[in-house]
């Protein structure tokens, strides 16, 4: 038998929405084992680099230019290993420095769709190792008759309609504050670096002449603002232990403001070149944990109660992040988080990469 040619024979792919993101899901065994060959192939699959991604699966936005690579876990305490890859839209970059909590919602269902796991009757719990970060997540969702039920009454901001509920719980494996400090100074600004599953930098929106009710498009149009935030992001990268992040999509940059709509705090997220129309799952977990630490940026004006749920306001509405923060300034801070997402399979079949970039 001749070796399959991806361009002519195609590659097995399941297009799925997970939370407020959309991505191409692959089995590890269906992609090249060599990372450089894999990344080149994925750029051709997604149609990058091209602002419109007209010749591939990508949707011309970072939230729709994502890839999940999934296999059975080699860790006896987990069921599935999940590698997230952020594919650049108009740049030939495939980044693996971060994970994606939105696509995470679809990993369990994908594993069942591809036969990596057998669904339990009624409800299935999948233990997932996030290879990008080393964190462990648990996904719980309905599987009546041994199949994933994508229908349901759960609504999330940023996604029209309703779908089946997927409950996610994530346990971070790293210190919550990478520098050990509640605040650091970068480029003349007081910032807080937090990593509760996603490296984020918290900044006071008022220092940047941002009120907190601006649209993503308005913030993206402010070139000087974007340049200032990018300067801080690049300086923060090494403090997270990420090294040079000039070509990476982490850390995520958050402008925080007092809440306006009954939530705990207002957020505008630079991810990093575009402004997120809502907020990512693990971004929300990191922000919610950060503002619960006394002295951190945002903690002074955040409206918090004693319960673990934190309602984060964003351009598309609100996101309820449930975060438990423990520790103190002496012993260090740690956190665990949970959230509710939805997911849906959109298209299953073969994807045909373009012959060359």
From TrEMBL:
The keyword Isomerase applies. Pfam families: PrpF. Keywords: Isomerase. SUPFAM superfamilies: Diaminopimelate epimerase-like. Belongs to the PrpF family. This is 4-oxalomesaconate tautomerase.
